[in-house]
Design brief:
Layout: E1 4-7, E2 19-22, H1 24-44, H2 54-67, E3 71-72, E4 84-88, E5 91-93, E6 107-112, E7 114-116, E8 119-120, E9 123-128, H3 134-153, H4 160-173, E10 177-178, E11 184-186, E12 193-197, E13 214-217, E14 220-222, E15 228-230, E16 237-239, E17 245-247, E18 250-254, E19 259-261
Parallel strand pairs: 1-2
Antiparallel strand pairs: 3-7, 4-6, 5-16, 6-9, 7-8, 10-14, 11-12, 13-18, 14-17, 15-16, 18-19
Bound molecules: 2-amino-4-trifluoromethylsulfanyl-butyric acid and cobalt (II) ion (2 copies).
Length: 275
């Protein structure tokens, strides 16, 4: 049985397995955090190019987050020491920024989470470095479609499994693999909270979606098989078959009549090309 808990935004919230239901204060907080997150990703579109290191991009994310009055939620999170995750080519997620330079043809995910006034804005986009082969660009396009198809299913009265079912059907129609080991999540005052939003599921299963629920949807889609492995750094997840992987993420809230995307790009830069 699923338990829900009403949250106004001022009380202490813990990870107790309940699904939090937020009011207007929560929506206002998430709108601000989400907008800052989207603006950071907007700015990165002008900087991601051959030769730039992922560490330099991390510096930009940290500075923009602090300038926006927020702190990067990943900094110090479970021992992680960077301001974002940068996942290149066959890295599925949680790539650690460093001195590696991007090169022509790379596809790159950058995932940011400013924590602003106690609310988490969690979002990621793909970036194309220079000339990217058609096969990789198609993977990126379809992965964005998967995200938006999942968001369309996030309606009050629907079931959580409806989201993953729609994403899985779309990805598999293109013969892509849907990553199972990582999923979307509830968020708000907490970075990662119940429920787990899986991206491969059966329609009609799982808890009912109710107004006031906040969650991320963040499908990771592989050009090859779905299977991933973790590198010895304890963070970096890569495809087992070395195939390319893509991901997009939005933070959303369920409303009375649909949903609100907190992390939509104010510049219309939700997916490449960003020119
Ligand atoms: N932003 C990631 C997510 O979408 C989580 C990153 S946690 C980190 O949930 F520690 F790896 F940064
Ligand atoms: Co997330
Ligand atoms: Co994220």
């Amino acid at each position: 049985m699923t338990e829900y808990q009403t949250v106004t935004g001022t009380e202490t919230v813990i990870r107790d397995g309940t699904i939090k239901l937020h009011g207007p204060e929560g929506f206002e907080g998430m709108r601000k955090a989400g907008r800052l997150a989207a603006e950071i990703l907007d700015a990165l579109a002008d900087i991601v190019q051959p030769g730039v290191t992922t560490g330099a991009l991390d510096d930009v994310v940290r500075q923009m987050t602090l300038d926006g009055g927020a702190v990067p939620a990943t900094l110090g999170y479970r021992g992680y020491t960077h301001s974002c995750c940068i996942s290149v080519n066959h890295v599925v997620c949680h790539g650690i920024p460093g001195d590696k330079a991007l090169k022509d043809g790379d596809i790159v995910n950058i995932d940011v989470t400013p924590l602003l006034d106690g609310w988490h804005g969690d979002t990621s986009r793909m970036y194309l470095v220079g000339d990217v082969p058609l096969k990789a660009r198609r993977l990126v396009d379809v992965t964005h479609e998967c995200l938006m198809i999942g968001i369309e299913k996030a309606q009050p009265g629907a079931r959580l499994g409806d989201i993953g079912a729609a994403i899985q059907a779309h990805a598999e129609k293109h013969r892509y693999g849907v990553v199972r080991e990582f999923c979307g999540h509830g968020l708000g005052r907490l970075f990662h909270d119940a429920p787990e939003v899986v991206h491969a599921a059966k329609a009609g299963t799982g808890p009912e979606l109710r107004p006031g629920m906040f969650m991320t949807i963040e499908p990771m889609i592989n050009l090859g098989r779905p299977w991933v492995k973790l590198l010895s750094d304890g963070w970096t997840a890569v495809t087992r078959d070395k195939s390319l992987s893509a991901q997009f993420e939005h933070s959303i809230g369920i409303t009375e009549d649909g949903n609100e995307i907190f992390t939509q790009s104010p510049a219309g830069r939700d997916k490449p090309p960003y020119a």
